[in-house]
Amino acid sequence: MERVRIFDTTLRDGEQAPGFSLRPSEKIQLAHQLDALGVDVIEAGFPIASAAEAEAVRQIATEVRRPIIACLARCHPADLEKAAWAIEPAAQGRIHTFIATSDLHLQAKLRITREQCIESAIDAVRFARRHTFDVQFSAEDATRSEIDFLCRVVEAVIKAGATTINLPDTVGYSTPDESLEFFRQVRSRVPNSDKVVFSTHCHDDLGFGVANSVAAVLGGARQVECTVNGIGERAGNAALEEIVMAFRTRPDRLPFTTNIVTQQLYPSSEMLAKLTGQGVQVNKAIVGRNAFAHEAGIHQDGVLKDRRTYEIMSAADVGAPWNPLQLGKHSGRHAVQKRCAALGFDFEGDELVRVYRALMAIADDRKTIEDADIIAVVKSMRHEKAAATEPVEAFEGAATAVGAMHESGYGHGV
């Protein structure tokens, strides 16, 4: 079981997503939660972006002592100087510097030559090494870069002092088989590749973010860059919780471990959603509201007998509540009876059948059944039953009274 570092970029790449920006105080609060989660590296921000951003990164570096605190900087002197200032108080500080290496980016965006790219990358790494021994270099758009040139860049920055090499799938273009082979190729072709940690950073534009990240690990990457809830630019980043639980759930195929405290996954997801005001999709793997919920009667019957019939991990393992009986039109009588019993209702005769049918009629209209619906249905039926028996009871009582009168002699001649 080889250990894989978890590099969390929720506070940097994740926060860059439209609608997900955080105030400095909120970033600090979330950084403490990421510390409790057990991430190895917190990328706290992009200091050159603003004075407030730089101050937030520095404050996190001051307060959060266990994990490595990293910050991003382009291969520009001003960026690097601000990054060095921001991580200065950290117990373990990392400067993460980057430049694009694909011809598309070099020509259309940066408008520089390949040689200028290499020179800028070397200068940036050397500058960063004067401020910290922990320097990460990223080749932006690496997966669309020409492989020979990319290997030249990686070899050059390792010689300059980079300790981590990140090869991002910046626009989520790769497929898992490509990702695995890509990392194998670069690692086999670059001298001294065994002296550094290779990292993967995958976006989810085609929905392959997590799959590509896992494939990269199989190809030799030992650091995964990811975000809580998979937030990030465009379609987002690889989701931290999915990667971690993939390793934990399938060690037979993925013999890797992490330092993540998995019981903190759901609380971290909830905190992020609350701070950003952006909820998690209900069917989101691991932390979605429906991740450990069941409506279909066959599934509900199975999990009530043995959770493993329809769940490959435990809600408790990720710190999530377990409420498997989500009542709807697909639910069975067993689930309805179980839910009613939890609310204190026991049934006799065909009462359960009538309650079940009434609830399914509600489900056809409302889609989901709440506890208030159950209580209302049961009370209404019992009230109707009581009302229906009242005339019979009154008649029987009157007959008894008349019989008593005859026996005592009263009522004669009436």
- Provide mean pLDDT, rounded: 90
How large is the share of residues in beta strands? 5-15%
Count, helices: 14
Distance between the termini: 99 Å
Q: Count the strands?
A: 10
Summarize the structure.
Helix 1 packs parallel to helix 2 and helix 2 packs parallel to helix 3. Helix 1 links the parallel strand 2 and strand 3. This protein has 414 residues and is of the alpha/beta class.
Please give the structural blueprint.
Blueprint: E1 2-3, E2 5-8, H1 24-37, E3 41-43, H2 51-63, E4 68-74, H3 77-87, E5 93-100, H4 103-110, H5 114-129, E6 135-140, H6 147-160, E7 164-166, H7 176-189, E8 197-201, H8 209-218, E9 223-226, H9 240-249, E10 256-257, H10 265-276, H11 297-305, H12 333-342, H13 351-366, H14 371-408
Parallel strand pairs: 1-10, 2-3, 2-9, 3-4, 4-5, 5-6, 6-7, 7-8, 8-9
Helix pairs in contact: 1-2, 1-10, 2-3, 5-6, 7-8, 13-14
